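User: Teach me something about this protein's shape.
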Amino acid sequence: MTATMTDAPPPVAPKAGAGNQRSGRSFGQILMIVAGALLLVAAVRVITGADQLDSAGQISAALGLAVPIGLAGLAGLWSERSGVVNIGLEGMMILGTFGAGWIGWQSSPWLGLLCGIGFGVLGGLVHAVATVTFGVDHIVSGVAINLLALGATQYLAKLFFADGDAAEAGGNPKQSPPADTLPHVTVPGLSDGLASLEKHHWFLVSDLAGILGGLVTNLSVVTILAVVLFVGSWWLLWRTPFGLRLRSCGENPVAAESLGVNVYTYKYAAVAVSGGLAGLGGAFLALVTSHTYLEGQTGGRGYIGLAAMIFGNWRPGGLAMGAGLFGFSDALQLRNGGETVHALLLLLVVLLAALAGWKLYRKALWQGVISAVMAALVLVWYLLTEEVPSDFVGATPYVVTLLVLSLSAQRLRMPKADGLRYRKGQGK
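Assistant: First, the predicted structure itself:
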């Protein structure tokens, strides 16, 4: 028995990216879902006449609102995949807005962008020191960073923007002077051609033209950078040995340490990257959305980013879809919101009816009946009204957040060691 155990080969470490096929949908399934969604949206647009539903302007506004949410969610994904819960994303975004506004107006928006990232990294390192080194509860540390970031930036804004050259340039205790604009990109020829197709309001063709037109017209370079970061994060975390080791720290740090992984180093690196991504999201708000730092500028986007990350099941693809959904719902109030949201009621009726049919098919009687009743109530609301009140339009992003999280909660699986305290040497 002893000889047999001694001669047994050592266990082989799993390859990077192994074991993930069962947890996600295939590429063909994703294409079918996207195609079905496009057909449904196009049909709703034609029936209701709400041409703003998927116009280039709506998609462009949604993209601009989705980028900071997506970057905050990607920041949370990096941190939580290493096992560190990062509730402090809101504070790190606040630090990013201040750093970008402070340096941006004095020198260059590019330097402001780097400073925003650097301020976010600083906030991430503070969170890492508290949680990884000293073992502070992750939630307590995150809330403390949010409060400290808010207080520190308010104090620094009064110190640097209230008088002197800053005041003469338009600054005050609650905002910085305006910074120069970062470059925007429009694909020549393609943008005009898609705009021409959109004006015909053809079924599906004009819908595709509007969606693609919003993605290639007046696109900020930071938006392009955000797309690259999403793709790069997916490749790095799921297709490289580095990503496998980092994710192992969030799943089972004791086993990772026993295999020679320096868990502290990977956690520090992940939380620092998390802070930098959150800072970049804040810099986007300061330099792209408004061209200036404003007190309260983040508006809770760090928390919405966490919701998008949970909706995406701690994966970049699902996170991007969640951020796009929240950005789209937030942009409705900017583009003839009452009529567009009213059109979405019909879309909600179809989705609830489909959900009811699926639940009844799966023998989930009560859930099917409740979904059918909700579909009938929403249909009555749609038929008896012509426009949704403006107050409800403003609450649409939060209603969408609650609905999405409630419907997706059953399939979620967070990293097993996420938020758990880890002490070096436990694997020995």
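Now, about its shape. The first strand starts at residue 184 and ends at 185. Confidence is low (pLDDT under 50) at residues 1-23. If you'd like, I can walk through any region in more detail.
User: That's plenty for now, thanks!
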